[in-house]
Amino acid sequence: MSSNVPESLQKVLSDVKRPAMAFSGGVDSTYVLYACGELGLDVIHYFVKGAFQTEREMRRATELASSLGFDLSVIHFDVMSRDEILENTEERCYLCKKMIMNLISEEAKGDGREVILDGTNASDDIGERPGMRVLGELGIRSPLKEAGLSKQDIRELSKKAGLPTWDMPSDSCLATRIPHGTAITRELLIRTEDAEADIRELGFRDFRVRTIGDGALLETEMEQSDLLDKKRHKVEKTLLKYYDSVSYGIRRSQL
């Protein structure tokens, strides 16, 4: 057995045969994929690409999977045809997650896979992530959570395993930048993706550009305050290409 996979996780995965996996290329799902590879599991992993996921995310997921010796299977999701999601109610995350996991379930069934894994960990709170309700409803297994591994545990294990994701900032889909009650449009999504790409070029790492009316709210971690002070003029010049006004907020630190 691999010394880089804790016994608790080895035990959880020991009864999993030929699983399918929802793969985002983030810290958690990358470690699950790594563990499956270390334990010799025949796993198929799927990345669901819709308008809420950036091209950067898909490239990263593809490259990470390849570095671990796997070919990524991409499922395309026409989320822009789903009015119940675009209405952007409080149930948006739940509805979107359910459709995504159903797509993966259908694909997995066609590939002869019965067990589906995801990267939910023991630190994840269902109160903060409504989409987690879907996992229980559809019987999705979360090996990291079952093994009692927290986000910090996974970062430490990833670092020990030499995974480049060990210190990757937590991320979420583009729709989370748009407040509930504001209809999601392709224009808003593209604007958000472009604005965040430009802010990233200025050296910011863990941040969000949120839509507030016609303005932007840039949320950065406290640790980036000095960088923001130094580059505030460039930040405002950049964001005013896309928005009518710019405001600032502190983003809660993520493990």
Which spans of ≥5 residues are poorly predicted at pLDDT below 50?
A: none
**Shape-level CATH architecture of the largest domain:** 3-Layer(aba) Sandwich
Give the strand tally.
Answer: 7
Largest sheet: 4 strands, parallel
What is the CATH C level class of the largest domain, in words?
A: Alpha Beta
Separation of the first and last Cα atoms: 28 Å
The number of helical elements comes to: 10
- As for the CATH topology of the largest domain, it is Rossmann fold
User: Structural class of the helix and strand makeup?
Assistant: alpha/beta
Mean pLDDT: 94
CATH H-level homologous superfamily name of the largest domain? HUPs
For the biggest β-sheet, the strand order reads 3-2-1-4
The structural domain count equals 2
Shape call: globular
